[in-house]
Amino acid sequence: MHQPTPPSAADDDRTSHPQGGKRTIHALKEDSLPTPAKAGATPGRNPRTGPPPTVELPPAHNALICVALPGLAVSAEHGQLTGRGLEGFYRAGRRVLSRCRLRVAGREPLAVQARMAGADRARFVGTVRASPHTGPDPDLLVERNRHADGTERITLHSAANRPLRLPVEVALGTDLALLGAIASGGAGPELPASVHDSGLRWSCPTGAASVTADPPPTDALASAGLLRWEFELPPHGSASVELRVRPEGAGPLRAAGQTATSPLAAARVTGDDHRAEALMRAGIADLQGLLVRYPAHPADTHLAAGAPWRCGLAPAEALAAARMALPLGTRLAAGTLRTLARSQRTGPGPQSGMIPGPHRDTGPQLPPGCTGTEATLLFPALLAEARRWGLPDTETEELLPAAERCLDWLRSSVGEGVYLCDPRPGGHARCETQAHAHRAALLGADLLDACGRPGAAGLRQWARALRAAFRKDFWIDTPGGGRPAAARAPDGRPLPQLGSAAAHLLDTGLLGGGTYAPGLLDAVQCEQLARLLGSPAMDSGWGLRGLGVREAAYNPLGHRAGAVRVRETATAVAGLAVAGYEKEAGGLLRGVLAAAEAFEYRLPEMYAGERRTDGSAPLPHPAACRPAATSAAAGILLLTSLAGIRPDAPSGTVTLRPLRSAPLGEIGLRGLRVAGAPFSVRVSRLGLAMVEEAADGLQLGV
Fold this sequence. Notes:
Layout lengths: L21 E3 L29 E3 L7 E5 L2 E5 L5 E2 L5 E4 L2 E4 L1 E6 L5 E9 L2 E8 L11 E8 L3 E8 L5 E10 L5 H5 L9 E4 L2 E6 L2 E8 L4 E3 L4 E8 L4 E10 L20 E4 L2 H16 L1 E4 L2 E7 L11 H10 L6 H11 L17 E2 L8 E2 H19 L3 H22 L14 E2 H20 L5 H18 L1 E2 L6 E2 L2 E2 L5 E2 L27 H11 L30 E2 H14 L2 H17 L7 E2 L21 H13 L3 E4 L4 E4 L10 E8 L2 E7 L5 E5 L5 E2 L2
Parallel strand pairs: 33-37
Antiparallel strand pairs: 1-2, 3-4, 4-6, 5-8, 6-7, 8-13, 9-10, 10-11, 11-12, 12-19, 13-18, 14-15, 15-16, 16-19, 17-18, 20-34, 21-22, 23-24, 25-28, 26-27, 28-29, 30-31, 32-33, 34-35, 35-36
Helix pairs in contact: 2-12, 3-4, 3-5, 3-12, 4-6, 5-6, 5-7, 6-7, 7-8, 10-11, 10-12
């Protein structure tokens, strides 16, 4: 996949709309679409005519999305590719086939089942009554196995007691459209086909694609885009056709996640709750499918943010997902850090040391936030924690200068003040930004000391000043016990909205010896926040709402205004577990697990924050990515939080702080990686943890 140029910190990520399913066309930038979509993007605001019109994105919530980047296959449940909406095969952001309609014996099969058979493949089953006067029972089963790599195998299974003569037709077509054009409704008409090899070919000024068939068709009609076969099936016999879709000049897809060099360990889960095993398996499979190689340095992989909309590099999401996936090994973290270090701004100026990232809509109560700020603060934190999980010293030292530049940017951006504000004149000081900055300072100081580099004392001094100021300035006293402010306006006025961003206050980061850094809240405030996050106003029963139900701007489908975002829920669960609030952590964990079951364990990036009731199911968000990197990695964090694994590979120790309440009963985590070696742990129904496999010489801490 072509590597995107790092987006500018001034770019938009996506914008919110009250209906939750609309985005302005100009908001679909490099990190929200596959790289080639940039060329087809609609221009943004025109100073004479105002902003561009708002259009409905093609819905993705009910699509079956096979992903093995840079390949995608997006299908409706009936299995036919009709050319409507998002349907089709994609390679590197271009739709190489939009229509693939099958007819057997003159009619389309009746769709009876559609399911994902893996992150990169889907299986569709239909039936045909090929013989007249056979009653209601179909005598032909039609199976279609569709892969993200651009292949589809169609198999006919006869259940008849006599031979069947079956004409088979596949109608093919494509527009060779970029995903950005499809999203904005400007895909254009289908292109004319020509007969090519054992199939058809299409071309346009910007590219070409072909479909080849095995066995070759009996007839190929370019004018109709049609391939035909005549099959003779013996009683209870079978016959197959394999279609291969390729962009011109491209060979078979070599997905980064499907090679022997994948950076993710093949961990697995056992125990009382079968849903935990399914969540781990699906999460790892989705992460594998979203892996992307850096072209100039193919050993370095990072995660795309999600499919179908965000198959490019989104720095903050890539770092956050790599951090949550650290129990699967440190290679993904190292590849992500190296990739983003190459994009880091250097030289003079206020943005020197910053990791570029687009702006992200943060709901109706605040202006868009800069994901570049979040990425710059996540960089040193991820490097510090990856070192604790076992990142080799040579790789730590290689990445240390980039982390130091991030920390220098933090100190220079704060200046003589105490808060890190949005990078615009008179910017807001956000609650979660202070949490990210505080964690970066403390973990960064720990990293600098460990590597014998200067600057740790100044970072710790500023972190102490931030804690003292935050506990006073960001805490709003209320009759119910108080709450943290969502932000402080430029005039110092606190914004009182309660949202899931407050969960980041509990995410303090891992230090040496199995300890966690201190948080911005004191003990009383932390207890009150735990109570709020576990309350019905925030806990929907399916996970943590993005905004409390009592807030004026609450919208259960608002992607930053009430929808459940899986990443924030997992952050809350892990933070609550570390802080000792197991009841609240367990409630949120069970809610997400119930939602995961309803989504067949492929968690979308978000879903509606409607209240869970008996017999209900979580409501999908029509514009959510599924799979999404942070949601897939969040499943890893949720499950490993049950064991409370706190490694310190440089010291040769690992500490376990399991949830004593054992909210999922007994659970075994096998095939994780600590200190570069397999690590397995089991937590009993009594909440007692036992290491079953570990690196030689790794000692159990206390």
